[in-house]
Design brief:
The complex is a heterotrimer of chains A (about 400), B (about 325) and C (about 300).
Chain A: E1 4-15, E2 18-30, E3 35-39, H1 46-53, E4 62-71, E5 74-75, H2 81-87, E6 92-95, H3 99-102, H4 109-120, H5 125-138, H6 144-147, H7 157-168, E7 175-179, H8 187-204, E8 207-212, H9 215-221, E9 224-229, E10 232-238, H10 239-244, H11 249-256, E11 307-308, H12 313-317, E12 330-331, H13 339-344, H14 370-375
Parallel strand pairs in A: 3-8, 3-9, 6-7, 7-8
Antiparallel strand pairs in A: 1-2, 1-4, 4-5, 9-10, 10-12, 11-12
Chain B: H1 2-28, H2 34-39, H3 45-55, H4 61-73, H5 87-122, H6 127-141, H7 144-158, H8 181-187, H9 191-228, H10 231-238, H11 243-280, H12 286-295, H13 299-327, H14 329-332
Helix pairs in contact in B: 1-13, 5-6, 5-9, 5-11, 6-9, 7-9, 7-11, 8-9, 9-11, 10-11, 11-12, 11-13, 12-13
Chain C: H1 2-5, H2 24-33, H3 36-53, H4 55-58, H5 90-126, H6 128-143, H7 146-157, H8 161-189, H9 191-198, H10 203-239, H11 252-260, H12 267-295
Helix pairs in contact in C: 2-12, 3-5, 3-12, 5-6, 5-8, 5-10, 5-12, 6-8, 7-8, 8-10, 9-10, 10-11, 10-12, 11-12
Classes of the chains: A alpha/beta (about 400), B mainly alpha (about 325), C mainly alpha (about 300).
Chain lengths: ~400, ~325, ~300
């Protein structure tokens, strides 16, 4: 049985400006000890998915409106608050993006660590303190006995994130969710913190969900990656497979929009044009269609399901593997880029033109006024002669 | 920490000096000749000159100021021109009454305002929140004298639940030791009189405390809502703490800080409000002393009272700042 | 195709986010119109302002002279708010009282804004020693609690409407001094002033075109809220016997003092006069809170 089994999760926020469709039916699984990366732009629903797992969505706006979150076979989405409290911190721990604001400024590190331990274990203050010292030592904080009496503001950002990790690991949780744990840190500190996170979760057999917008961070840290866009998982594969054969136009775009140091001849970076869709509208069709150079007419109307890629064994056998090193490579795409196109970062089929928004079908793109396109919620990816959308002979 | 207190003390000195200059100017730049006012129809040139010399009014202004400053430093606030009594000892006699009143009002404001603010924040946008918002709007909008008379009219005159005015039933005699009624009645071994003093205190304290109540409620509500959105509160929940513990240790410990600052600032308003409250409830304190002095054109008394009130205000704010630093490690350890 | 589609290359603005460009004031005004409490406040103020303006037309009686036959009459059809000790119509006096309260309140707040604002703007714009000295002066004023300062000033300058205005202005001034100083200091460091400077705008232009308008929004909010306090303080001075020199003047605070000595027999005078003061203050407080929310949507809770 999977440690975590999220099925068709739907999360919406009810705000003054309307309903925000944050997570639109997300399913994924996680085995004990497995390390999963969750990648996407800000606002793609990756953090919300995990706050939903912890049932820590901002109240009263954020609500789980559908699906199940099975943890060890028990549905967290419907679990009573009191049971959930026992689970939080003990079985599932979380660390957040900004270590400067994630620790309580008026309590000492000792108070904050001891209260975590004592919230779940009936141990004396002294024992809890000894455990806190041990944990601080594990995350590489020198002189942990004296540092325990410090307040958060007396630590640097990297040190605070170490404290957060130590606190999260205090009860040897089965699952650790790290939400952009290094984004707020200096580049030099990032590697150290990631190393600690990786070493300690591996040693403790703790499963890890690493949320980040930085593909470089997940590359070395995780075994499997889910790519999210506008509240959907659009691609999932093992880490090595994803980097070797990115198959969703969005993933392709992501990989082409970051500099890669391992390429001999640094290729030109291709930014993803346009902006993510307005999530105040209920999703219709593929949310990436307005920005996609591969889009077909059907993309505007139907969101494709997550299905194995053509080259994946599951495409023939029909046996989809959801976890582990043999996990199937699946994408949600009507018209996936070919491997050559993925390398080029643009469609290479002669004469291919991205389908215009519905209602504008048949009108040559040159004749469409920008305002009409805007009204249709579209941004057209077109280039300066060699960009995506331009047929290459 | 000590260094911080010391620095705050040093910062208060220029303010105190400035205050003494303003108040000196207040008496000495008064339109009209104080000596003429003092002597009235008995004024003769010789007598006027003699009094001027005696009061030091013939000396240059800066010299007069230094003399005034010297007197202040030795605790001499001068003598009332009306009855020749020492202003300092008159104030000492009446201050306990004012302190008793303002302390009770502050207690009322804090004791009710913080729970109300927390309730409003917990049910933000709900009907309790709306009710609390209306109460605090009324609190800051209804002047003390109107609320005072309204309470008096309904609760004392009509319903006769509480006494209308004064600090104690006039038939009760209590030996004045500290001039704090609540203490003196107990020292005298009169629990009945203690209860009576307490009953006399209720209405004035509510009337005076209504504005700080409104403000403490508002700031508590806003502060709790602010802190509730902080990342560390989410961390606390993610650790699996109970809601009660999240609230008391993580939300309130931080939400307190702005509330404490605001409470300090309310003390000034309370002292000023005491002047009016004491007039409404015939409360024997400094406020009534000032109002009588205004009517008698006894400017020295007005001046000295303002000085003492300002001094109390500064001291209380110093204490509040120290308390704030104590609650906030970011200041304590900097 | 490439040339025609080139403008589309820019990220297209989301239709729903484009409203930020509509201008702060229009936006604020729109938010204000959707704020029911603020509109109620505005309505209250409008009613009292009209009452004050039209008092000679609306008032059924003479605000100063009464007939002793009519003294201490409870509210009736002839005297909607009853009569006072001198037999004067209370409604008439409440209407005329609105003139004094609103006039003195508005003038004193404007004076306070002018005095405090000037001090604060100078302190904030120049900084350094000028700032230190000016802010110490403000600290001294702040150390004297509210109405006590006003009492001192009225006692010092003698009773009179101008004196009351000045006294209340002086108690308000520190608020505005601190506000403008803070805004100026923050703005001096802000990006867009730096930007204006970098394109070669003169100091005067930066001050008047860029810094003042932005410093103004918190001042407008504070001034509206200060009006509530000012009206209460003016009434408070009247209540303490420091109102207008002519004791017959229809001034809310003075009317209260007159009424207190026999309020057991005639509670309606305190009731109606007190309601007038309180409702006016409520009006300004509601409007001030509404303005704050409208001008700074981040503060909305």
């Amino acid at each position: 049985m999977a440690l975590l089994d999220v099925r068709d999760l739907v999360v919406r926020f009810r705000t003054q400006d309307g309903t925000i469709h944050a997570v639109n039916g997300v399913s994924f699984e996680l085995e004990p000890g497995e390390r999963l990366g969750l990648v996407g732009e800000s606002g793609c629903g990756k953090s919300v998915t995990n706050l939903a797992v912890m049932r820590l969505l901002p109240k009263p706006a954020g609500r789980i409106e559908g699906g199940q979150i099975l943890f060890d076979g028990v549905d967290l989405a419907t679990m009573p608050e009191a049971d959930l409290r026992d689970l939080r911190g003990r079985d599932v721990a979380m660390i957040f993006q900004d270590p400067m604001t994630s620790l309580n400024p008026v309590l000492t590190i000792e108070e904050q660590m001891v209260e975590t331990i004592r919230a779940h274990r009936k141990v004396s203050r002294e024992d809890a303190r000894a455990r806190a010292i041990e944990l601080l030592g594990m995350v590489g904080i020198a002189r942990p006995e004296s540092r325990l009496r410090s307040y958060p503001h007396q630590f640097s950002g990297g040190m605070r994130q170490r404290v957060m990790i130590a606190m999260a690991l205090a009860l040897e949780p089965k699952l650790m969710i790290a939400d952009e744990p290094t984004t707020a840190l200096d580049v030099t500190i990032q590697a150290q913190v990631l190393e600690i996170l990786e070493r300690l979760t591996t040693e403790g057999g703790t499963a890890l969900i690493l949320i980040t917008h930085d593909l470089g961070v997940v590359a070395g840290m995780t075994q499997r990656i889910n790519v999210m866009y506008a509240g959907f998982i659009v691609e999932t594969a093992t880490t090595s497979e994803l980097f070797a054969n990115p198959s969703h136009p969005y993933t392709v775009g992501l990989l082409h929009s970051i500099p890669r140091l391992d390429e001999e001849q640094p290729e030109r970076l291709i930014p993803i044009e346009g902006t993510p869709p307005d999530q105040r509208r209920a999703p219709v069709g593929c949310p990436f269609a307005p920005r996609c150079a591969w889009r077909l007419e059907v993309c505007w109307e139907v969101m494709p399901p997550l299905a194995p890629t053509a080259n994946d064994p599951a495409a023939i056998s029909g046996r989809v593997v959801t976890t582990g090193p043999d996990a199937s490579h699946r994408i949600a795409c009507h018209n996936p880029p070919t491997p050559e196109e993925a390398v080029a970062g643009q469609p290479l089929r002669p004469g291919f033109v991205p389908a215009p928004p519905p209602g504008l079908v048949g009108v040559p793109i040159e004749d469409v006024a920008p305002a009409e396109l805007e009204a249709a919620g579209a941004s057209v990816a077109a280039g300066d002669g060699s960009g995506p959308g331009e047929p290459v002979a | 920490m000590l260094k911080y207190v010391f620095r705050r003390l040093l910062a208060a000195i220029p303010v105190l000096l400035g205050l003494s200059i303003v108040l000196f100017a207040f008496v000495h730049l008064l339109p009209g000749d104080p000596v003429a006012a003092l002597l009235g129809q008995h004024a003769t040139p010789e007598l006027t000159a003699e009094i001027r010399t005696r009061l030091g009014l013939d000396k240059p202004l800066y010299e007069q100021y230094l003399i005034y400053l010297g007197q202040l430093l030795s605790g001499d606030l001068g003598k009332s021109v009306i009855n020749n009594r020492s202003v300092a000892s008159e104030l000492a006699l009446r201050f306990p009454g004012t302190i008793e009143l303002t302390a009770a009002a502050l207690l009322f404001a804090i004791g009710l305002g913080i729970p109300l603010g927390r309730i409003a924040a917990r049910h933000a946008q709900g009907w309790t929140d709306g009710a609390v918002t209306v109460i605090s709007l009324l609190g800051i909008s209804i002047p003390i004298f109107i609320l005072g008379y309204t309470l008096q009219f309904f609760l004392s005159v009509q319903l006769k639940w509480l006494p209308t005015s004064a600090r104690l039933d006039p038939r009760t005699h209590i030996d004045a030791v500290t001039n704090f009624m609540l203490i003196d009645t107990l020292l005298d071994g009169r629990p009945d009189a203690f209860v009576d003093a307490l009953r006399h205190l209720v209405l004035p304290a509510i009337a005076l405390g209504s504005i700080p109540l409104a403000i403490v409620t508002r700031i508590t509500r806003a502060s709790v809502l602010d802190v509730a959105n902080e990342d560390y509160v989410r961390t606390a929940r993610a650790k699996g703490l109970t809601e009660r513990r999240v609230d008391s240790r993580h939300v309130m410990r931080n939400a307190w800080l702005p509330v404490v600052t605001v409470i300090g600032l309310q003390v000034g308003g309370l002292l000023a409000g005491a002047v009016i409250t004491e007039t409404v409830f015939s409360w024997n304190g400094v406020g009534r002393y000032v109002v009588e002095a205004i009517q008698d054109h006894d400017y020295l008394v007005v001046q000295s009272t303002i000085l003492v009130f300002a001094l109390i205000f500064l001291v209380v704010n110093l204490l509040v700042d120290v308390g704030y630093a104590f609650l906030n490690p970011r200041i304590r350890y900097s | 195709m490439a040339t025609a589609a080139a403008p589309l290359n820019q990220p297209l603005a989301q239709p729903l986010t484009s409203r930020a460009s509509r201008g702060l004031w229009r936006d604020a005004f729109r938010r204000l119109l959707h704020n029911r409490p603020a509109l109620l406040g505005l309505a209250i103020i409008a009613v009292f302002a009209l009452a004050a303006l039209l008092a000679p037309v609306l008032a059924p009686g003479d605000p100063l002279a009464g007939t002793l036959v009519n003294r201490i009459k409870p509210p009736s059809a002839a005297h909607l708010m009853g009569t006072d000790l001198q037999g004067r119509d209370v409604l008439t006096r409440v209407l005329y009282g609105a003139r004094i309260s609103l006039l003195v309140g508005v003038v004193s707040v404007l004076m306070g804004v002018a005095m405090g604002g000037t001090i604060g703007a100078i302190a904030g714009a120049f900084g350094g020693r000028v700032d230190t000295v000016l802010m110490r002066v403000v600290d001294v004023l702040l150390a004297i609690p509210g109405i006590l300062l006003a009492i001192g000033v009225v006692v010092w300058l003698d009773r009179g409407l101008l004196q009351i205005m000045f006294a209340v202005a002086l108690t308000n001034a520190p608020i505005f001094a601190r506000l403008l100083r803070g805004s100026m200091l923050a703005l001096r460091e802000s990006d867009y002033v730096t930007a204006a400077r970098s394109i070669g705008a003169s100091t005067g232009r930066i001050l008047f075109r860029h810094m003042l308008p932005n410093a103004l929004t918190p001042v407008i909010v504070a001034a509206t809220l200060a009006l509530a306090t000012a009206i209460i303080d003016v009434a408070g001075l009247g209540f303490l016997g420091l109102g207008p020199p002519d004791p017959r003047t229809a001034e809310w605070g003075t009317m209260l003092t007159d009424a207190t000595s026999f309020y057991r027999q005639a509670p309606w005078i305190i009731f109606f006069t007190g309601a007038a003061i309180s409702i006016t203050a409520i009006g300004f407080n509601l409007l001030g809170d509404g303005l704050r929310e409208a001008l700074d949507p981040r503060l909305r809770h």
